[in-house]
Amino acid sequence: MNHSARTCLVAIVGGVFSVPAPLWADTGQARFYTSLESHSYSDIAPIDQVIHGLEGPPVDDGEFAFTHNQLEIGETWLQFGLSYFWRYDYFLEFNGDTARLAHSEQNNVPLPTTGRYNIFLRANELRSQGVGFSYQWQLAPNLHSRLRLNYLRADDMSDGELNGVLIAEELGFSGDLQLDYGYSEDQLLGREIEDVDGSGYSVDLDIRWRWGDQLEFALEGRDIWSRLRWKDLTYTRASATTDVISYDADGALASIPGIAGTEGYRSQSQQLPARYNLSARYQFNSKLSISPSVYAYDQHLFPRLALGWQLGNCLLQTSYDLETGALGLNISHDNFSIGLHSDDSDWQQARALGLQLGMGFRF
Questions:
Q1: Phi and psi (nearest 5°) for 105?
Q2: CB 3.0–4.6 Å: which of 38, 61, 71, 258 could bond 15 by disulfide?
Q3: HSE on the CB side for 228, CA within 13 Å?
C-alpha cells in the first residue's frame, strides 16, 4: 500500500506541470503535443489521508476511491495520431465496515465490544506504458468520430478481492475471510516481491455532433474495452478462521490469525475500469457558453456544469461538480491549456483533485 500510495502522490503533484492534447486533430497540419492529466477522488476521507493509510480522523461512510494519471507525447497528422504514454491507475471498492476496520487498525482505535462487520475490498491497480494509434473520420457533415487503440505493457499490478464477515465479541473476534488476488507486490501478507510482466490493449472512442451554430454534443470514452494478460503472475488464494483474534489491554485489535491457503503462479486477465464523459455545449453568443456534462468512472457518476468566456484567442472556463462540490478553472489557448479542480482550498483536505497542463506545436 505504501509503494502504491507514493506513486499516486507523485502523479498527483506532477499533474501541475501537464495538459491534455486536443480531442480533434488539425487535419491540415502535423501537430506535436505533450500532456499530463491527474484525476483523483475518495469519498471516505481526504486523498492525503488515504495515501497515508487512513492515519488521522475517523473516516466517513463510502464505497470507492480512485486515481488516474497519464503522461503522453504524440503527433497528429491528417486523420491519424500516434503517441507514447505512461499511466498509473488505482481503483478501490469497499464497504463502510471495511473502511472503519482499516482505520481502527491503522490508528489503534478501540472497536465496539460487540457487532458484526461485513468485509468487502476490491482492488485494481496498474502501472503501464504503451503506444496509442488513432484515426478520425467524418460520418456526416456535422458528425465526427475518433477511434484509438492502445497497446499496453506493465510490470506492476494488483487485482483481486477480500471478503467475508467478522463478529466482534467480548473476548475477541470470530468469523471467516476469503482472499483471492494476483499482484506484483503483496501488500497484505508481505510475500517477497517478484518480477512480473503483462501486456494487453484498451480502446478509446470519441463522438462529436454539432447541431446548428450554437449547440454541440460530445461523448468521450476511455478504456471502453480493455484486457491485459499476465503469465506466471504471483497470487494468493486463502481463507482464515478468525476466532483466535483478540483485543489488547486498551481494547484495540491485537492480532491477526494465520492464514491457510495457496501461494503460487498463474495466468490472469485484468480489465481496466471504463471512463466516460458525456457533455453538451450551448453557445449563447460569440463570448459566452454553457456546458453541462456527466463524468462516469466505472459505475460512479459525477454531474458537472461549466461556464465559458471567450477572451480573444483564450477560453476561460469555470466548472462545478455537483457530486463532489469541486470547483474548477481552465484556461486554454491554441498552443497550451492549464486547469485544476478541487473541493477544498487546502489540497491536504481535498477529496476530489484534478490537475492538468498541456502544450502543442504545429509544423
A1: -65, -40
A2: 38
A3: 29
pTM, to two decimals = 0.85
Q: Which of 7, 139, 1 is nearest to 69 (CA)?
A: 7
Residues 180-224 have pLDDT tens digits of 999 998 877 777 788 899 999 999 999 999 998 899 999 999 999
Q: Using one digit for the tens of pLDDT, what is the confidence trace for 87-131? A: 999 999 999 999 998 998 889 888 776 788 899 999 999 999 999
d(CA 38, CA 354): 5
What secondary structure does DSSP assign to 97-156, as a single string?
Answer: HHHHHHHHHHHTPPPPSSEEEEEEEEEEEEEEEEEEEEEEEEEETTEEEEEEEEEEEEEE
State the residue for C-alpha cell 501486456.
Answer: 199
What is the C-alpha to C-alpha distance for residues 301 and 275, in angstroms, rounded to an integer?
A: 10
